[in-house]
Amino acid sequence: MDEMMQGGFAFPSTVLVAGSAGTGKTTFALQFLARGVKDGEQGIFFTTLSEPTQWMLRFVTNFTFLDKDSFGKQIKYVDLGPVLRKDRDPDILLKYIDEQIAEYMPQRIVIDPISVIGNMIKGDYRMFLYDLANHLKNWRAVSIMTGEVLPNEPYPVEVSYIVDTVVLLTLGLTSEGTRRKYLEILKMRGTQHTTGQHLMDVSRDGITVTVGLK
Amino acid sequence: MSGQNEAVMQKLRGALDSPPAARKLLFTMRAQSVTRMDLAVARILLSERRERGIYVTIDRPDKNVIMILQKHNVAGPDDVSSDLEPKEKRLFIARGILSPAVFIAELLSRTSKPHTGPALHAELTRMRFLMLDNLSSLAVYNGPKGIEACFDYVAMMLMRYSSMRFVAVAARDSLDALGPDARGFFNLEIDIPDGWLMD
């Protein structure tokens, strides 16, 4: 991945990781946070799905790349669900996100998945996304938002406008007729990057991209 | 706090205790640690030493800085002002609007105004530090002239207010972009090792 991006995501920057169900978006985000832990950084994982912490921990235990002990310490797990359900107010949600970031001061932030907020929030979702991106950019961190891809669009267009980088995860058929996962960097503002779809494997060790293998 | 982190805090305290000759201090580290270093320096100056001073942020909203200081019990709303008029606050937070030179020039010129000037001058006289929270951003938004002007105005400020010291925090990989003279401006440069402030 670092090779594709000539050293990784710019710091600070905002990233959309988009894909349909089962393409590895959450795994990508967790691996991103785990890498930060190895570099001595702090991370916040904002979930919008209100999954219990123990459920996330069960998911995490499947992977070898993330030290379970880092969850709750170097990686803070924050559920946005109660705030979303209670008020549905974009300003209250932004303030809550800001406060969590100010308290924990992470270098890496994940919001997984951002698409849920669009269905729950009152008012203009695009305006909220614009404000959210500006808020995240002001915190000096690399922020990943994961986005669900709908059948009628290649990626969440409304999110792609506001981020610096768009990574698209897709499922496709190889020439032998088997279904495989692919990773493509659609956009990376201000940085050279490798284009095109590249074969991607998800295992207990995390995501492995084979650059050049299509 | 780990032994390494405490050692770094002691190093910071020592640097901030430097004799008057070393009034221009630069702390460098990896880019990802700059915000935490800003907080560590502010904690020493404001919480431990109860000093008065000016905190300049080039490209962050001042409300973000205030929120961090409040969340970490470094300064509360009663301590902070973001208003250019004298307010008798311990900390003045200024958003540098990309160019700290413009802000410092404005501040200096206001000390000469007939009505508010004397009070502002008195307040600045009691201030002990001028802090720039991310020197790396200076090169992002300013060319060589803008960078030079910033250091010129900082020097002017230190000349007029002899109790004030200049403290800047920067990503070490950004220093080349500031030009060959930037490092020479500082009396003391302290590099903070990677992995600092993990806990």
Give a verbal description of the structure:
The complex is a heterodimer of chains A (214) and B (199). In chain A, 31% of the residues lie in helices and 28% in strands. With 214 residues, chain A is an alpha/beta fold. Chain A has one domain: Rossmann fold (3-Layer(aba) Sandwich), CATH 3.40.50. A 9-stranded mixed β-sheet of chain A has the order 3-2-4-5-1-6-7-8-9, sandwiched between helices. Chain B has a single domain, classed as 3-Layer(aba) Sandwich (Rossmann fold). Helices cover 43% and strands 17% of the residues of chain B. In chain B, strands 3-4-2-5-6-1-7 form a 7-stranded parallel β-sheet, with helices on one face. In chain B, helix 1 (3-16) crosses helix 2 (34-48) and helix 4 (100-110) packs parallel to helix 7. The longest helix of chain B is centred in the C-terminal third of the chain and has 17 residues, at 144-160. The model of chain B has no long low-confidence stretch (mean pLDDT 90).
Key structural traits:
heterodimer; A: 214 residues; alpha/beta; Rossmann fold; 9-stranded mixed sheet; 7 helices; B: 199 residues; 7-stranded parallel sheet; 8 helices; 7 strands; 43% helix; 17% strand; globular
User: Roughly what fraction of the amino acids of chain A lie in strands?
Assistant: 25-35%
Strand content of chain B: 15-25%
> Helices and strands of chain A, in N-to-C order?
EHEHEHHEHHEHEEEE
User: Structural class, from helix and strand content of chain B?
Assistant: alpha/beta
Structural class of chain A: alpha/beta
C-alpha-based Rg of chain B, rounded: 16 Å
Total number of helices of chain A: 7
> In total, how many beta strands of chain B?
7
Low-pLDDT runs of 5+ residues of chain A are none
Indicate how many domains the architecture of chain B comprises: 1
Helix content range of chain A: 25-40%
Looking at how many chains there are and whether they match, the oligomeric state comes to: heterodimer
Q: Report the CATH architecture of chain B.
A: 3-Layer(aba) Sandwich
